[in-house]
Structures are given as structure tokens and as C-alpha cells.
Amino acid sequence: MTSVEDARPVADVTGVPPLAGRSVAVVHEWFSAAGGSENVFLAIAELLPHARRYVLWAERDAPARDLGLRESWLARTALRRSKALALPVMPLAWRTLSRDPFDVVVSSSHAFAHTVRLGPPERTRHLSYVHSPARYVWSPTVDGRGSSPLLRAPRRALQAADLRLSRHVHAYAANSVEVRDRIQRYWKRDAVVIHPPVDVDFYATPAGPEQPREYLLGVGRWIPYKNFDLMISIAAAAGLPLVIAGAGPEEARLRRAASRVGVPITFELRPSRDRLRELYQGARALLFPAHEDFGIIPVEAQAAGTPVIGLRSGGLLETVVDGETGFLVPSTRAADHAAAVRRVGELSAARIREHARSFARERFAARMSGWIADECR
Question: Please, what are the domains in the chain?
Fold first, then answer.
């Protein structure tokens, strides 16, 4: 371990009564400063305050020590700089994470964290919350990053390893129906659906005087499958300004595309949480023309009373009520999304905010703690 020295786990009282007096570990893939899966991991850790917290590595800007994160040996290698190159050795890293056995392990997994083994199956109860079976490995067509030539050869071997090394998992939870169906399809396992937590109270709190909502908004990491280039085309077709908030490797290409359209395109690089709330509350609509497993950003926007215009697929089928809190479009034609933008005046901001409350943090805490308690009695 690289963050603190290893020691025997200490059994202590946790926030889930059936785990009182039992040793507990919570594990997660890599940890960056801000991200949806990291927020889920921290929410799980809050329910289990005396659990050990393990990650493969923490990014340099993540407060690893403040959060008590223990990193694997991968953190001391150059592989931490390339998730694609690190994938083939991740199962080994999880199997050599710690020599200490635990009574209960809760993994937060979007790659191979669910293969971690911290004790024999007959003693250790392993529950896994899944953001998605590794998309690089199982569904590369969903996320174009998985189509890298570096992954083509080892993909079949990684699929076999993923299945073989996860047989000891006792129960799965999925962050959406989309992911539950993927778990069934790829792993032949059942899962309960527990939607991730969203801080709806924060995004519903007015950031200042009410704004005129004159622009469209796109939020997220600037990578190909998020379709920010399509958002630019939608804004041009709708004749409205667009604000693009986030960061990522597509920045230069997106700026070139923005320079070729006849509407103002503004780039907000790595906005703070407070600034993001302002952007949500000032937007006419959030554009989200991407296929996501769940999608926390659309829920945040709805908490601010902002409707969502997105693809009729994936997690949006669970987070957006078509015709009430936004419009779901069955195509990637900019004109179709622009037509939906013109209809947002039909929607009620109060109804949109009300719907977002069904994804509040307290809902997640109740569902997650109940699931853990039921599986560990």
C-alpha cells in the first residue's frame, strides 16, 4: 500500500447495523478529483465509516490522504498514466491488494474492482455495486475508447478472466436498468437496481437572481462518445448560443468546429461546482445526445429546473420523463434535437425539479444500506 502502512483490520460499528463488530473494506477503481463513480464510492464509504478504503491509484489532484485511500502497487508504476495499458494487469492488482481478510467487502466497480478478493468466500461476504461491466472489454461499441488496437487482442482473454475471477461475488447492484441488463447478458448474474446519489438540494438552491435562460448547455468530459460536436450542430440548427462546460482531449477539435458555426459557442473549462450550478440554472435546456449507463449530469440539470434534450436510449430512459421533464429524441440528427429545443416552453420547471428529487442522496443511502443489511444478515 502506498498511502498508509498496512495493519490488521479492526472490527467496529458501522452505519449499517448488521455490520457492527465486523471488519469491512470498500474498494473502487482509480480515483480522480471529481467524478460520478467516485461520488458513489464516497457515499458508500459514508454508510460504512469504519471500513478500509482501497483504490488502484488516486490521481495527483485527488485528496487521497484526506480520504484515507490506500493505493495498490499499480500506483507506483507508470501504468497509472494509461488506463488502457493497465487493464490487463488490473485483475492481478486486485488479487494482490492486501493480505488482510475482511468479513465484508463492498466494491464500486466499472472495470475489474468486482474481482477483488479479500478473504475466502466462505468467510468474506462480497457485494458489488456496478457502474458498468468494463465497457472497454464488454461493450466497446458503446464507448469508442474501447476500440483501441491495444485492446483488440487481449479483449477475449480479459472477458474470460473477468468471469472466472468474479465467481465469489455474492450479490450485485446496478446503477441502472441498462447496467442490470448488461450484467445479466455478459455475466449471467442477477442484480438489483440502485440509482446513484445526486445532490439535488445543492443544484435546486438558487445561485443568485433568476436568469433569462437564453443559452443551451453541454456538460461533461470532452471525449468522442459524449457527442459535443453534435451539440454544436444542434445549437446552430436551433439558432441559440451554446455553453460547453468541462474539459478533455477533444478541446482543440471542438473549438475548431465551434468557429465554423454562426451562433456563439462559449467554452467553460473545468467550472467549479458553484459555477456549474449557475450554468444549469441559466440554461434553456441541457443537451445530452449520448448513450450513457445512467447519467448524473441530466439529473443535476433537472434539479435546477432545466429540461433535458437527449437520446432516447440508455440511462436517459430512467432519468428523463419524455414530454414532462425533457424530450427524448430517437435519432442523432441535429434538426430533430433542435425541434425538441423549440418545445421546452411547454414544460414546467416545478415538475422538472420534483422529478429530480427521486434521485436524491438520501434515497440512495436508504436503498444501499437496506441492500447491504439484507445481504449481510
Answer: 17-197+361-375 (3.40.50), 200-359 (3.40.50.2000)
Contact call for residues 90 and 143 (beta carbons, < 8 A):
no
Instruction: Please answer whether residues 12 and 50 qualify as being in contact, where contact means their C-beta atoms are separated by less than 8 angstroms.
Output: yes
- For residues 272 and 296, the answer to whether their CB atoms sit within 8 Å is no
Rounded to whole angstroms, the Cα distance separating 307 from 294 reads 17
Round to whole Å and give the CA distance between 206 and 150.
47
Q: Residue 355's closest CA among 278, 303, 284, 288?
A: 303
Alpha-carbon span 30 to 64, nearest angstrom = 11
Residue type, 301: A
Q: How many CA atoms lie within 13 A of 107 on its CB side?
A: 31
Amino acid in the structure at residue 86: A
Cα-Cα-Cα-Cα dihedral sign, residues 229, 234, 237, 239: negative
Non-local (6+) Cβ contacts of 2 within 8 A are: 70, 71, 72, 73, 75, 76
Helix 296-303 vs helix 273-282: angle between axes, to the nearest 10 degrees? 70
Contact 192, 203 (CB under 8 A): no
Least confident range of 150-159, 200-209, 229-238: 150-159
Place of cell 474492482: 113
The Cα–Cα gap between 319 and 305 comes to 14
Assess contact for 57 and 113: CB atoms under 8 A. no
All three cell numbers of 35: 467524478
- The rounded Cα 331 to chain-centroid distance in angstroms is 24
d(CA 74, CA 263): 46
Overall size of the chain counted in residues: 377
| pLDDT tens track for 140-150 | 776 555 566 66
The cell for 95 is 488479487
Give the pLDDT confidence of 7-53 residue by residue, as tens digits. 333 334 456 877 888 999 999 998 876 677 888 999 999 999 989 99
Sheet of 215-221: strand order equals: 265-269, 242-247, 215-221, 283-288, 308-311, 326-329
Q: What is the pTM of this model?
A: 0.87
